[in-house]
Amino acid sequence: MKKHELPPLPYKLGALAPHISEKTMEYHYGKHLKTYIDNLNNLIEGTKFESMPLDEIVKKSDGGVFNNAAQAWNHIFFFEGLAHKPKKEPEGLLLESIELSFGSFGSMKEQLSKAAAAQFGSGWAWLVVKGEELEIVTTSNAGTPIKEGRIPVLCIDVWEHAYYLDYQNRRAEFLSSIWEVIDWQRIEDRFSVALLGK
Fold first, then answer.
1. How many DSSP H helices and E strands does the chain contain?
2. Dihedral of CA 24/30/35/41: which sign?
3. Average pLDDT value for residue range 9-31
4. Nearest to residue 109, comparing CAs of 169, 164, 175, 166?
5. Which tens digit of pLDDT belongs to each residue from 55-83?
6. How far is residue 156 from each of residues 74, 87, 186, 198, measured CA to CA in Å?
7. β-strand partners of 129
8. From its phi and psi, is residue 31 left (phi > 0), alpha (psi between -120 and 50) or beta?
9. Is this prediction's pTM over 0.85?
10. pLDDT in tens, 84-116
11. In DSSP terms, which residues pair with 139 in a beta bridge?
12. Torsion angles phi and psi, residue 137, rounded to 5
C-alpha cells in the first residue's frame, strides 16, 4: 500500500505571520492535517481505496474514509493557495471571469468573505468554476465541491482551528486578514487548468 503523506508547504511555518502565526500553522498543518492523513491511511489499509489517489477517494467514499480524505484534500488545497509574498490581485482570464461573475474583484472578495462569515459552525467557503464564470459556495464540516463534480480554484478554511489561536472568536478579522496571504498566481494557475479540462 502506498501511504498518503503530509505534503511539504511552499513556505516556512512562520512565513504567513502576522496574518497566520507560526503557532497556528504548527497545529493546523502539523497536527490537524497530519492526523487526517494518518487516520486515512489506517482506514483504507486492505480496502479498495488503498491504491487510489486522494481526490478519487474523496469522490468515491463516505463515512469515516470520506471525512478524513476530504479534510486532507481540503486542507492541502487551502495551504497551497497561500504564499509568503503572494501575488495580491488576479489578472488575465481569471480577472475577466471574476468581473463577469461578480462585477469587480473587490465585490468578489466582499461576497466570499460574507459567505465565509455566515457559514454556521465548521466548514469552508469556495470559489468554484461554473462554465466560463465563477460562483461562491460553502460546505459544512468535511464537505468539498469535488464530491459534487465542481472545480474549485480557491477556498477559505473557517473551522475554528484555522484561526482561534490568533483571532479567538473574531472570524471576521481573520477573514479580512487572510486576503493578504492568498496567492493569486496559484489561483490563476488553477483556473487555467480548470479551463483546459472543459
1. 9, 3
2. positive
3. 97
4. 175
5. 999 999 999 999 999 999 999 999 999 99
6. 9, 17, 14, 24
7. 134, 151
8. alpha
9. yes
10. 999 999 999 999 999 999 999 999 999 999 999
11. 124
12. -135, 155
Q: What pLDDT band is residue 188 in, cutting at 50, 70 and 90? A: very high
- C-alpha cell recorded at residue 86: 503572494
* For range 148-164, the mean pLDDT: 96
Cis preceding linkage at 7, omega within 30: no
Q: Which three cell numbers mark 16? A: 504567513
Amino acid of residue 136: I
Hey, which bits of the chain come out as E strands?
123-130, 133-140, 151-157
Determine the length of the chain: 198
Task: Map grid coordinates 495580491 to a residue.
Answer: 88
For residue 91, report the phi and psi dihedrals to the nearest 5 degrees.
Answer: -135, 180
Q: Which neighbouring-strand residues pair with 98?
A: none
183-186 long-range CB contacts below 8 Å, 24 or more apart? Answer: 183/81, 183/82, 183/83, 183/86, 183/87, 184/86, 184/87, 184/88, 184/89, 184/90, 184/91, 184/94, 185/83, 185/86, 185/87, 186/80, 186/81, 186/83, 186/86
Tell me if 36 sits within 8 A of 71, measured CB to CB.
yes
With contact defined as beta carbons under 8 Å apart, do 14 and 23 qualify? no
User: Which of 184, 7, 10 lies closest to 97 in space, CA to CA?
Assistant: 184
The cell for 17 is 505571520
Give the model confidence (pLDDT) of 46-55 as tens digits.
999 999 999 9
In the three-class reduction of DSSP (H, G, I as helix; E, B as strand; rest coil), residue 60 is classed as: helix
